[in-house]
Design brief:
Length: 235
């Protein structure tokens, strides 16, 4: 459905990713796991088409373009939470980005946004300014915006950061359900155990792919060591 082939990304002399080939399928919930600076966010940005220069290819299946199908939830701290918009407006952005220029949201769009806010548990906060929310509430709003867009490819960069344990479980169940409904879900996380419980597939990455497969097959001491001791970066 979506993938990269031979992807190499450099920031000046720094190699962020080297010759990465991965394919993400509909109905699959994948966790991207690796240490800080492993290139996980860079990989997600490449998949969105936001990355400027790279070697290799980003591929979409025919009929699926990034423009119409993709939902990207960046790391919470990379966003401007002082921007003067409400929870409702933010979720509606997921809809308007889908509609395109010159088309105004109608009753159906408002219903979709209301449903997304209810599903993520922030409907009652819809009139609140986004700057007045807690970290967990902000994350729920970002997921509501993602749901409102109704895309098929969901890319999430550390969606559980700053979220309490109960909320984390709710959000993971929500993402699992998205995959079960036929969407491709790709999530960057640092939580190995949570990924094991909820995801079909784990990709261990440290500038290159160290291991890729079902959680039990991937979580070997050798793979974990190669990923987190830096062996992956130069090996
Ligand atoms: N815009 C940029 N300019 C220069 N270097 C960058 C840029 N973006 C990322 N890097 C570098 O590329 C490497 C990979 O960064 P990236 O953010 O993709 O890693 P990550 O695995 O998502 O890390 P983290 O878990 O800390 O979010 C890091 O060494 C980072 O410093």
């Amino acid at each position: 459905m979506l993938g990269v082939e031979g992807l190499t990304v450099c920031y000046g002399p720094q190699v962020a990713l080297r010759d990465v080939t991965l394919r993400f399928e509909a109905g699959q919930f994948t966790a991207l796991i690796g240490p800080n600076g492993a290139g996980k966010s860079t990989l997600l940005r490449a998949l969105t088409g936001l990355l400027g220069e790279y070697e290799g290819q980003v591929t979409y299946d025919p009929g699926h373009s990034a423009r119409s199908c993709l939902c990207y939830v960046p790391q919470q701290q990379t966003l401007d939470w002082g921007f003067p918009v409400t929870v409702w407006d933010t979720a509606m952005m997921g809809r308007t980005s889908r509609l395109g220029w010159g088309r105004w949201p109608g009753a159906r769009d408002r219903q979709i946004v209301a449903d997304a806010l209810k599903e993520t548990g922030v409907y009652d906060l819809r009139h609140r300014h986004i700057g007045a929310l807690s970290g967990g509430q902000r994350q729920r709003v970002l997921l509501a915006r993602m749901l409102a867009r109704q895309g098929h490819l969901l890319l999430l960069d550390e969606p559980l950061t700053g979220v309490d344990v109960t909320t984390q479980e709710q959000l993971m169940a929500l993402l699992r359900a998205q995959a079960d409904q036929g969407r491709a879900v790709v999530m960057v996380t640092h939580d190995l155990e949570q990924a094991r419980r909820w995801c079909d597939r784990i990709v261990l990455i440290n500038r290159r792919v160290i291991a890729d497969g079902r959680p039990d097959a991937v979580y070997t001491p050798q793979n974990i060591e190669a990923t987190f001791t830096g062996g992956g970066a130069h090996g």
